[in-house]
Design brief:
It is built from five helices and four strands; from the N terminus they run E-H-E-H-H-H-E-E-H. It has about 120 residues and is an alpha+beta fold.
């Protein structure tokens, strides 16, 4: 299991505590220090079944100039923008060993990742 976090984020700290409480093994990726590549973002988006703009943090996206239309024609611009400005990416993103990926902003999503890690 891998979890992309920003240590300053309370949702990330809660998700880490939930993973610890569940006793699952995981690798932490501080994605601001080690930004995901465009290819990694594509993989995560495919696993989530989402588009790049769906994982963009609204306030940070505007601050970084990621104000493109949310349509297929601008998908590449969104991917490039998220890769260039990782603080615009929703967090935490958790990927279980079986490939199940969630945005762990709520206990149910984290529980889903834990369940898939154990299966």
């Amino acid at each position: 299991m891998e979890i992309w976090i920003n240590p300053a984020c309370s949702k990330c700290r809660v998700a880490l505590a939930d993973l610890d409480a569940a006793g699952v093994s995981y690798t932490v990726r501080r994605y601001l220090d080690d930004p995901p590549t465009r290819a990694e973002l594509e993989d995560v988006l495919a696993a989530l079944g989402l588009e790049p703009w769906d994982i963009a943090r609204p306030k940070e996206s505007v601050e970084e100039g990621l104000t493109f239309p949310r349509d297929p024609e601008h998908r590449d611009a969104w991917l490039d923008g998220l890769a260039t400005h990782p603080r615009t990416i929703q967090r935490p993103i958790i990927t279980a060993a079986d490939g199940t990926t969630v945005i762990g902003r709520d206990p149910e999503s984290v529980a889903t990742a834990i369940e898939h890690e154990r299966s």
